[in-house]
Amino acid sequence: MRKPSNRSRALLAVLAAAVLGVSGCDAAGGDSAGPTAARKATRAPSPTPAWDRSPGSVAAVGDSITRGFDACAVLTDCPEVSWATGASTEVDSLAVRLLGAAKAAERSWNYAVTGARMADLPGQMAQAAAHRPELVTVMAGANDACRASTSAMTSVADFRAEFKDAMSTLREELPRAQVYVASVPNLKRLWSEGRTNPLGKQVWKLGICPSMLGDADALDSAATLRRDTVQKRVEAYNEVLEEVCAKDERCRFDGGAVYDYRFGTDQLSHWDWFHPSVNGQARLAEIAYRAVTSGKA
After folding, report:
1. pTM to 2 decimals?
2. How far apart are CA 7 and CA 132, in angstroms?
């Protein structure tokens, strides 16, 4: 093999120096991430806090459904049959299922208010937070759609801002409390179920959800458009509830389970054929219990 010339050896030295220079830049500085940065890039993200399927206390916020409105008597709250905190053995509320009857009587609180809208939720959250509950249930939004007219419904943007405000109010006091959020029921289906009942329609005329239930027998294009507009707004509210809840690592949305539930005549109040009956409250308790105790986040 021919011995390299002095010129060849010099050229090889230059090339070696260039290679070493590039390697050194990649390994120790310049635009390279370097070993420390590389370790940071591959570091596992912080684990999501484990969901406690056995919370030791429950507070409820929301509207007439959570107050058991029209479940026991006409135009009257009946919190003892509330799906969230009621003591009725016919309902077996979420609080009773989680805590047992004796403890639920001492460690559950209901701050829902008939007629409440999402704008009222921050105040309810503040009241609930004072008890430092480990789980807060939320069912609100129906009254934001149930207005005198479709133009009076809460805008989606305002609904989002108000729900965020409610969650922030809770988080300022209880950053570790868990939250279960129920979807807004399918109001159009409730109209469809109740509109064949003469008594129910008479009660509707007293002002129950006029945007959906007004002129209950009308099937013309204007009435259909009105009901469809309300329905689309409810669907938009549920999207907001899901999206905002998803950004809070200690919040669970029901996945649309309440909206999808097909309330029948047994599950509706036999006074207004719109709000849940005692049986309907029991079904809502079942849905909530499955969501809260599920191993799936």
Report:
1. 0.83
2. 83
